[in-house]
């Protein structure tokens, strides 16, 4: 199945499948409950964080409360509080947009007590990860990365009430992308009609999880128009059966004002590709979007790799 979301982002999805964000060591991200402060730390430790997660399905909002951190490294040997930390929160795989705490001064054991909200549907929770990146602002005002924590949201949902978690920071975390096939997309914007047209064309070698390979191949393209951070409209193609390289050849029209294009995008979940302005996309996806803007009322067609 192909999913397009309101940022030009494309999702390819097989009915009943979930999106694999990449290879990750599950032992590092177990969802055990918070049990006290536990001031025992392993060698080469770079910090521990306490937080609370809560999902409101009626409002489609994930609330993240960053409570505190302990044992962050001091930048000066012999000093116990030479650290001015703050935290950025990301909903992976999108690393372009983030929320950020206030800077805490001169402490390796900061207390944050800040709550942040992410607008996200229950379906999207299965395909996203929460990433916390800790920074230290040094004497030269340089922002130095301390470490990261990564939570696969599909392992935390559904919840009953609030979920308290504790994790140790890692120097490196990764959601290694897999290439999951390719899709041909065409974009066209008519400024006179204020109309964005997205055409889903051919695909190549869509990959599905092993447990789904024995099923009859059925794919569908779903496009969600994202404006700001909310889905404003969704449309979908007919289901195409019997091929790992289905051809959809369907067009979708969205009413989008010219001055709203910078905050509009499209989304993917056998795979994903996101098309949009610099606010949402980079590389080939951004180039395709900009080419559409430079050639208004023309169909601009390109192939994109799904990950």
TrEMBL record:
TM stretches of this protein: none
Keywords for the protein's UniProt record, in alphabetical order: Repeat
Protein's gene: Syt15-L2
GO CC annotations, alphabetized: exocytic vesicle; plasma membrane
PROSITE patterns named among the record's database cross-references: C2
Domain of life: Eukaryota
SMART domains from the UniProt entry: C2
Lineage per the UniProt record: Eukaryota, Metazoa, Ecdysozoa, Arthropoda, Crustacea
UniProt domain C2: residue ranges: 45-166, 179-304
Name of this protein: Synaptotagmin-15-like 2
One of the GO BP terms on file: calcium-ion regulated exocytosis
Keyword Transit peptide attributed: no
Gene Ontology MF annotations: calcium ion binding; calcium-dependent phospholipid binding; clathrin binding; phosphatidylserine binding; SNARE binding
InterPro entries from the UniProt entry: C2_dom (IPR000008), C2_domain_sf (IPR035892), Synaptotagmin-15/17_C2A (IPR047897)
SUPFAM superfamilies: C2 domain (Calcium/lipid-binding domain, CaLB)
Organism this protein belongs to: Homarus americanus (American lobster)
